[in-house]
Fold these 2 entries.
Entry 1:
Amino acid sequence: MRPLKAAAVTLFALASYVQAQVSVPYDYNRWPYPLYAEVTQKLQSLAKRYPKLARLHNIGKSGQGRDLWVIEISNFDKGPSDGKPALWADGNIHAGEVTGRQLLMYFAEQLLLSYGKDPKMTALVDDRVYYIMPILDVDGGEKVLTRHPAWPDHKPAEQAGKDLDGDGFITQMRVKDPKGMWYQSPIDPRVMLQVRDRTGGRWNFVPTTVDEPKDFDDELAPPDRRYSVYVEGQNMSPRASVTREPANFNRNWPAEWKPTEPGAGPYPLSLPEVAAVAKFMTDHKNIYFDYTIHSGGGAKNYIVRPPMSHPFEFMPPEDNDFYARVGAVWSWLSEGGLMNNNYYAQEVKAGRYGDTMTGFKNDWSYMHLGIHSLLPEIAAAGRDYDGDGYVTQYEIMRWNDKEKDGVYFAPWKTYKHPQLGNVELGGPRGMPQGVGDRLKNECEIHAKLLLHIAGLAPRLRVDKVEARPSKDGLVRVEAILKNEGFLSTYVTRQALTAKVDTPILAELDVEGGELVSPKAQVAGHILGRLAYIRRWGSGADESAKTVEWTVRKRGTGPLKLTVRASTPKAGADSRTVTVNP
Ligand SMILES: [Zn+2]
């Protein structure tokens, strides 16, 4: 086996069998999760403790003036970050979806703790860069994690409700209402289900034919069994109707942005946090992959892939193959988890979004930056008691009853409300997003997926430099450039279409002679194995490219030749040889 082929195989093996060897000391049971100040402090202490591996970036300010922190992790002694392929990861982009902050703090610590102990992870810190932003919506996340009077840093004025019965938690109010959009679950009457219809039952609506009636739950939810559900202590005084929803952090991105999209915001990047991230990701041309973590998942984890606003066929086969391949790895790690896009999502079918959903971060990453992107939807409360691979809300209730002494659900009880009359107060009481062994599992499998993807990066190498005499006493210098990564050096075909790729630049330095041809040459791109994955069976290898220069020797001494090659997403490399042709 030729040495270059051996190198490629080694990296591939590394990518495929990454295991977390080092256990991260981590309190998986903590709820509510650490607030902004504690996360900031932790990031600062990590950067201080590992000065050669971590540094902090303050990339801007939130709407309420909080600093936006990104921790950069790489071995800074092994070359500058802009010469290595980089991964971006953000968490808590949606205010209520706070699990991402926990996953990414775990991931950052795992990278740092494993360095020098686990050889595979050490290699993936030496030769990759990770830009990790545990909390993107810092203001919204803070509001959610201080929601209850019993929780730290509670600021009543910032919350939607009030603790009317003084049990220490803001829960819900339910009241009989023939026009209400909720009913009691026939399986567990403590659980309130949304009526499935085309206007209100957003999450439960699953159409099967075009002829379905407007309301699907007439039998289960006749008018006399319907309820309206409010936040406990919600301000009931009428307000002027708000015609636009507040901007949604994941509808405010420029890709296919539409003013009519619910939550689109007044214009793309109108949210300061979104603008700051867009600028950082655009400025850091080494980023080839974007992981943007949500935790609004339903009964089972899944990962959303681009394109969100188009069918799969929109994507060229090479790009689509990446998701097919990584989707299979995810399915294995998560024991059956799915990777899909939202083009055919039930919300689209329900008509709320028109033809499709637009303004997503992962579409922006793919369509405008030309990089790959994934959006995990994590669901991590409760337990899969029946082992069917799903954690339903009944299993979450059972987990709370059996394992948590019922603390996360307030039984419904009557209360006399000044405006609504007799209501019942109760419902989820600060139900955790993810704690315990399920959170541990989420942390581990998402870290493994991220490390797997880190192993798939394009990676440019100067494999060989040779010189031989040519006519008229000149010397021909040849460098073989190689992409030993899985992805092509352009990362996505979409990058070529959008003209956001940066071709390889190769330069030659000569001692003992002088260049006759230009010093710098644009060398285009080199395919990664993904590009010819369908031809592997025929032994295809298109991973190398030759670049040539002409040199005039000075005297009879040797020539010292240094070839440097780089393209931001596939990194930089150089090789020096001394020859006497
Ligand atoms: Zn979300």
Entry 2:
Amino acid sequence: MLLQRRAIFALGLRMCSSQATTGPQTIEGARPSSDMTEFRQVFSKAKHIAIVTGAGVAAASGLPTFRGQHESWRKWKSQDLATPEAFSRYPSRVWEFYHYRRELVMDKKPTAAHYAIAECEARLRAQGRDVVVITQCIDDLHLKAGSKHVLKIHGNLMETRCVSCGHVHSNKHSPICAALKGTGSPDPNVADAQIPVDKLPRCEKKDCHGLLRPNVVFFGETLDSHVLTKVEKELEECDLCLVVGTSSIVYPAAMFGPRVASRGVPVAEFNLSTSPKTEYFTYHFTGPCETTLPTALAPLES
Ligand SMILES: [Zn+2]
């Protein structure tokens, strides 16, 4: 309980998005290094590696992140749809949005970045070393690639949760219910399907039949404290942290890397560009993570 409370205070529990309007304030003389040889030396000695991943890890798979300027669904941004208020007022519209996203994910394969992480975990495990993935992604591509130790802080698109009884269930049906078949087009000219609420996904538990929702954390919602407690432990125990494919603007995940860095532990960022948190890190490698990560995590020559 104490640890749980500490997790709440240390990390903050609500998911929120903070768009940085200015670039990172670079501290003179504190620029992160991009020396891969030096990083590889640190990597060779690490016993417990925490890898924090965001949407960028899946970008090469073709999955939209719903974060960019042009990534809207119909006329809405994900921040307009992925909220408890939107789900409560427009459950059919929100389910269409998530149905669209589920169908996209089912089509996609893991990227070279997902595979590099999964292979690294398996290789290091055989040497008695630990790798944990702490991901903001709600897709299942880390698991598809073979990662075993994955903490999904924003939930899972392939799970449902009953709003009445709270039951969480893995669900990979396509479509998830008959009424959603053929719906979910992102085209702004397409009208809402306006599916009656009793035709949306419903709980299969006996005597419940409550409305199901995607088991993901909506904006403004509380993160699962059990998952956060595990994350807290990993961040405290790791001796190397990688921050991969995240713009570091969604909290609390944006603070995971800086928190590890504040203990004096090396943190390496792999991203298309610098982020508002780059200045906190020891290393920064610019470029698509499906290119930089396989090099960084490749087996070491003996
Ligand atoms: Zn139920």
